[in-house]
């Protein structure tokens, strides 16, 4: 009888547990930290259980989520790219989390929370946010007597000196993130008053610089499909500089031995410029119960443990989300290059909080490719993209 009652009690406890289906994008090397956090969360409490599933990179996961939303098979919790968040909010797919976010740790960096707020509502929980870095081949720089460029003019000059018959000074991908970095660093934005701003002075200056470098043979342009080749160009010393998020280097290091010393430096930035905060957040999706939303926030709070945050930062090179983690990262941040790149968080801004960007960005990427790979004049390419974007929203 006692065993029967015990079994009933265990069954009742299992039935009371709130299950949270969770789709995430954390592959190697950060995936191991996330999996450990989930195991630790389950051991620390019995009220909630995450059913985690890896669904690919940001773009692949976004496509899968849209299909799941249409078919009614979406998860409760989604780990998605930041630029996806405003669209989920506009479609009322993301659950506002402000009611569940009382008594947050006082040492959370305010900018990190602003990155997940859209029109005054908190639609996500920051998990991994990064800033861009200028990666460069230290060996090639030493051979030419160069120092990391601090302005875009210095970068152009360095690319010219590094270029040879078999290698380019700089490699650029024609994706919206890389181009946004160039525009924001000049104090500009690709969106103004909720409308595409592709023909702004800053956007034109950025594309003219890239176009000039490609035409002179000092830069190699790669489209999004060729992004792996852009990395290969750098690793095979076919290019000596390139832009990427801070998180790019640990991924490469986990997969291959680097044949030269890699340097990293802050992105050249004008006085009024900013750098894009990119990365991903946890989003609670429409249909979640209040208990599931509470469980998602409880897991995020568990993830904010300073020691876990420190392990996450060391492994992925994402920015720490709270100041308490810095005490665990003193040796990591002693490296002067790493410290200077991470310090860009002071000028970090969300690179997109406009829902229409997910509709527009393909027109801009097409324009970048036409200009850099087909030779179309920058102003013509940007004007064409602007016209298509306005037509897409019926203007």
Entry keywords:
395 residues; alpha/beta; D-Maltodextrin-Binding Protein, domain 2; 2 domains; six-stranded mixed β-sheet; three-stranded antiparallel β-sheet
Give me the secondary-structure topology.
Elements: H1 2-16, E1 18-24, H2 31-44, E2 48-54, H3 58-71, E3 77-81, H4 85-90, H5 110-114, E4 117-118, E5 121-122, E6 125-130, E7 132-137, H6 138-144, H7 152-162, E8 170-173, H8 176-185, E9 191-192, E10 195-196, H9 201-215, E11 219-222, H10 227-235, E12 241-245, H11 248-255, E13 262-265, E14 275-284, H12 290-303, H13 306-316, H14 336-342, E15 348-350, H15 357-374, H16 378-392
Parallel strand pairs: 1-2, 1-3, 8-11, 14-15
Antiparallel strand pairs: 3-14, 4-5, 6-14, 7-12, 7-13, 9-10
Signal peptide: 1-16
Protein name: ABC transporter substrate-binding protein
Keywords: Signal
Can you put this structure into words, describing what you see?
This is ABC transporter substrate-binding protein. Keywords: Signal. It comes from Thermus composti. With 395 residues, this protein is α/β, with parallel strands linked by helices. The protein folds into two domains: 187 residues, D-Maltodextrin-Binding Protein, domain 2 (3-Layer(aba) Sandwich); 172 residues, Periplasmic binding protein-like II (D-Maltodextrin-Binding Protein, domain 2). It contains 16 helices and 15 strands. Strands 1, 2, 3, 6, 14 and 15 form a six-stranded mixed sheet that branches. A three-stranded antiparallel sheet has the order 12-7-13. Helix 9 runs parallel beside helix 15. The N and C termini lie far apart (74 Å). About 3% of the residues have low confidence.
């Amino acid at each position: 009888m006692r065993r029967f009652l015990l079994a009933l009690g265990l069954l009742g406890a299992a039935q009371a547990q709130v299950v949270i289906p969770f789709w995430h994008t954390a592959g190697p090397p950060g995936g191991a930290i996330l999996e450990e956090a989930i195991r630790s969360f389950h051991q620390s409490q019995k009220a909630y259980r995450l059913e985690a599933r890896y669904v690919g990179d940001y773009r692949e996961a976004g496509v899968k989520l849209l299909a799941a939303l249409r078919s009614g098979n979406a998860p409760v919790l989604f780990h998605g790219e930041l630029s996806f968040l405003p669209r989920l909010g506009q479609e009322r797919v993301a659950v506002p989390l402000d009611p569940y976010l009382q008594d947050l740790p006082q040492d959370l960096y305010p900018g990190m929370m602003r990155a997940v707020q859209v029109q005054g509502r908190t639609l996500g929980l920051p998990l991994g946010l990064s800033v861009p870095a200028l990666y460069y081949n230290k060996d090639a720089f030493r051979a030419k007597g160069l120092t990391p460029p601090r302005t875009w003019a210095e970068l152009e000059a360095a690319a010219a000196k590094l270029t040879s018959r078999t290698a380019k000074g700089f490699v650029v991908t024609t994706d919206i993130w890389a181009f946004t970095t160039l525009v924001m660093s000049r104090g500009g934005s690709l969106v103004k008053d909720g409308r595409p701003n592709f023909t702004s002075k800053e956007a034109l200056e950025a594309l003219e610089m890239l176009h000039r470098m490609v035409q002179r043979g000092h830069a190699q342009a790669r489209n999004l499909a060729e992004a792996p080749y852009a990395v290969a160009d750098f690793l095979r010393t076919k290019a000596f500089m390139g832009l990427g998020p801070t998180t790019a280097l640990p991924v490469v290091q986990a997969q291959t031995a680097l044949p030269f010393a890699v340097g990293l430096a802050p992105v050249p930035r004008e006085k009024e410029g900013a750098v894009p905060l990119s990365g991903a957040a946890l989003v609670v999706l429409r249909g979640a119960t209040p208990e599931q939303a509470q469980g998602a926030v409880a897991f995020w709070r568990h993830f904010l443990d300073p020691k876990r945050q420190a392990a996450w930062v060391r492994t992925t090179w994402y920015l720490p989300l709270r100041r308490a983690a810095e005490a665990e990262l003193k040796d990591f941040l002693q490296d002067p290059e790493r410290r200077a790149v991470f310090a860009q968080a002071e000028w970090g801004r969300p690179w997109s909080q406009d829902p229409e960007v997910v509709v527009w960005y393909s027109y801009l990427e097409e324009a970048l490719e036409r200009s850099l790979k087909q030779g179309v004049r920058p102003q013509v390419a940007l004007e064409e993209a602007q016209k298509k974007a306005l037509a897409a929203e019926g203007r």
